[in-house]
Specification:
By secondary structure, the protein is α+β, with helices and mostly antiparallel strands. The chain has 2 domains: about 120 residues, Endopeptidase. Chain P, domain 1 (Glutathione S-transferase Yfyf (Class Pi), Chain A, domain 2), CATH 1.20.1050.40; about 250 residues, Neurolysin, domain 3. Helices cover about 55% and strands about 10% of the residues. It has a 5-stranded mixed β-sheet with strand order 2-3-4-8-5. Strands 1-9 form a two-stranded antiparallel sheet. It has a two-stranded antiparallel sheet with strand order 6-7. The radius of gyration is 22 Å and the shape is globular. The termini are far apart.
Length: about 500
């Protein structure tokens, strides 16, 4: 029997080269893409499909490609040399095109369907890995008829072009066109709306559930501060990330120390993350607060130890703050909360500890819950209810757009949102706003249970073991229920004294 068990091996941090020679970088990327295409073609010709002959080779092939191109999303925007930025952009686009076209091969989908006949999964991790790959192949169009599959590639190219134009010249018309293009894509994949597609893999599941949650929050009276610890209106950035990481690390039983590893620019600070008790490597965390492309927390390389490749995880946080005035850069309360959220999200993304990258890429629900929880644990005031109401307002507009909203809906959303919020709705169309609302409610429930000793190590390590380490191997609600000893209570923020 093939067992996909939790890791006990020690995986060292991945070796990422942030200053490659552009020509060599482009050649290495091209070789990786060619190997990936060849690997998937060999898998598609398999005669006897099984977990070992289909699912595991797919996992290894995509993990190899992801590892080989991990630096591209950063170097595309942050590399100092223009020719390296261009090489990284070309690398990222060629890898994505190869991935989309190769996974749309109907032979792979039909082989995987044959794997599912009989008793194919003997452990929860085997089942989760197989189902994750089935979802990827369906989303890539592998289950579609040839004409629909070709239409899907055309629609994706159309959306890519709109988003690229929007990145250069954001305006109301492109904003509306992006929403309409996503809706057409969803219909091709068999969904009623983009909202249905985006929410299907989350614990919200359906647009109706998301709308009910948002309406419940927006119906609340004027928000009141929830924290009992008042804070000044602004805090200095200097030293703040170290303070936040110290709280997070203590909660999870980790040790975060400055690393000698280089980053992609002089502004980057790199940290080694190890288990506090054993000293075993967990991963690497890189922070850049002068980023040209500030996208917050991002897991570049999930942990891997599948018998063919072994490395710890690598996460980054990219933010951009105004140039410091006399006395240093100061952050408003909302910026402090956002920074704590992103740092907590990134640190948590290093922790998942199964053998495979696909399952170690922790679900968006869990990562946002953990970020919101860490923002709650950091001893600074935050107006949770006001922040939640703000998120809910964005989510209500987001849901309307993602359910086939009209051009008028798009224009209304455009005018109601701040520029940064508009960029999120175009660039990251996974209904992150609705997920953030849910994450804040889950985090408030967990924080209420932690009581007066929120950083007690036994509680934090239990959260790490039951919620974070399983990664994507278990449903989010199952993980939270195991940790809390009961189903999560989404009303806890409004009833903080509930048992």
């Amino acid at each position: 029997m093939l067992l996909l068990s939790l890791l006990i091996a020690v995986a060292e941090p991945p070796a990422l080269d942030w200053h490659p020679e552009p020509t060599a970088y482009a050649a290495a990327c091209g070789d990786a893409v060619t190997r990936y295409r060849g690997s998937l073609e060999a898998i598609a010709r398999t005669q006897s499909p099984s977990l070992a002959s289909i699912v595991l080779p797919l996992e290894r092939a995509q993990a190899d490609l992801d590892d080989a191109t991990a630096t591209a999303p950063i170097l595309e925007h942050e590399a100092a040399a223009p020719d390296l930025r261009e090489a990284a952009r070309t690398c990222r686009e060629s890898a994505r095109t190869a991935d989309e076209t190769a996974l749309a091969d109907p032979r792979l989908f039909h082989l995987l369907q044959r794997v599912f006949h009989g008793r194919w999964a003997r452990t929860p991790i085997e089942r989760s890995l197989g189902l994750r790959w089935r979802s990827l192949l369906v989303a890539s169009g592998g289950a579609l008829a040839p004409q629909a599959r070709r239409a899907l590639l055309v629609r994706r190219a159309e959306l890519d072009a709109i988003e690229a134009d929007y990145a250069e010249h954001p305006d109301e018309m492109l904003f509306a066109r992006a929403a309409a293009a996503r809706d057409r894509l969803a219909h091709l994949l068999g969904y009623e709306s983009w909202a249905e597609r985006a929410l299907a893999p989350t614990s919200l599941r359906t647009p109706a559930a998301a709308e009910k949650l948002v309406e419940r929050i927006l119906a609340e009276p004027t928000a009141q501060p929830h924290s009992l610890d008042p804070a000044p209106e602004a805090l200095p950035l200097a030293g703040l990330p170290d303070d936040i990481l110290a709280v997070d690390a203590a909660f999870l039983g980790l040790r975060v120390t400055h690393s000698d590893l280089a980053g992609w620019s002089p502004s980057v600070r790199v940290f080694d993350v190890n288990d506090a008790a054993s000293g075993d490597p967990i991963g690497t965390l890189a922070l850049d607060f002068d980023a040209d492309d500030p996208r917050g927390a991002q897991l570049l390389v999930p942990r891997r130890d599948d018998g063919t490749g072994t490395h710890a995880a690598y996460a980054v946080v990219r933010m951009r703050y105004p140039a410091p005035r006399r006395g240093g850069t100061m952050l408003a309360r909302a910026q402090v909360a956002a920074l704590a959220d992103e740092l907590g999200t990134a640190l948590a993304s290093l922790v998942p500890d199964t053998a495979y990258e696909r399952l170690n890429d922790v679900s968006p629900d869990v990562s946002r819950i953990t970020g919101a929880l860490f923002a709650d644990l950091f001893p600074r005031a935050r107006d949770e209810r006001a922040e939640l109401a703000s998120d809910a307002h964005v989510a209500s507009l987001d849901l309307r757009l993602a359910q086939g909203g009209s051009g008028a809906d798009a224009r209304m959303a455009w005018r109601a949102l701040a520029p940064a919020q508009r960029a999120v709705l175009v660039r990251d169309a996974g209904l992150v706003s609705a997920r953030n609302v849910l994450a804040r409610l889950y985090a408030a429930d967990i924080a209420a249970d932690l009581g007066a000793e929120p950083i007690a190590q036994e509680v934090g390590r239990r959260y790490r073991r039951l919620v974070l380490e399983p990664g994507g191997a278990l449903p989010v609600l199952d993980e939270l229920t195991r940790f809390l000893g009961r189903p999560p209570d989404l009303e806890r923020l409004y009833t903080p004294d509930a048992p």
